Amino acid sequence: MISNKSFVTTLAVLGTVVGGVSASPAMARSAMTMSSRVSASDRHFMQAAAQGGIAEVALGQLAARKGSMSVVRRFGRRMVHDHSMANASLKALARRKGVMLPTGMKAEDRRLHTRLSRLSGRTFDRSYMRAMINDHVKDVAEFQKESGRANDTDLHNFVIKTLPTLQDHLVMARRTMGIIEANRRPMRRMR
After folding, report:
1. pLDDT digits (tens, 9 = 90+) for 99-109
2. Residue 7 burial (CB < 10 Å; 0-12/13-18/19+)?
3. How many CA atoms lie within 13 A of 67 on its CB side?
4. Which residues contact 63 (CB under 8 A, 6 or more apart)?
5. Is residue 150 within 8 Å of 159, Cβ to Cβ?
6. Cβ distance 113 to 105 under 8 Å?
7. DSSP code of residue 39
8. What's the CA gap between 154 and 142, in Å, rounded?
């Protein structure tokens, strides 16, 4: 079993070797202490939100590039903008709290990105928007739940500030899907 002091020293050395950042054992201890002040459930929420935000940006970039309809490209650009802003706020909060955030998408989101990147045209548009509706339904539910249970005041403030944006995204995603579906239906000929 490794001692706490050895662990902190190892973290400082790894920070110097791997990250090219000079970190003293005192800095590592300070980060570890701050992190221990954040509850496990708050830390888990922050990490999951970070991964989700990273995925939203990557998928939004894909939609902005591959969308066949302007409303899909516009929605993708909005996802990139809004989620980049939220990601930056969450990253700053995590840094202040000493919480390490993931830097990539979870496997499920990587698979979705790969699948969508192979599609084109209206098939891409429908599949992307369907994924955005499903994802934002889950996101809104998670943020609503976290707004009532966050132990950390700063995290609670982040959640209640971000929730209306996610709710707007859900409304926009459903509206965009409606436009896609309306353009999918064949027009009746007048006789």
Report:
1. 999 999 999 99
2. middle
3. 21
4. 72, 73, 75, 76, 79, 124, 128
5. yes
6. yes
7. -
8. 17
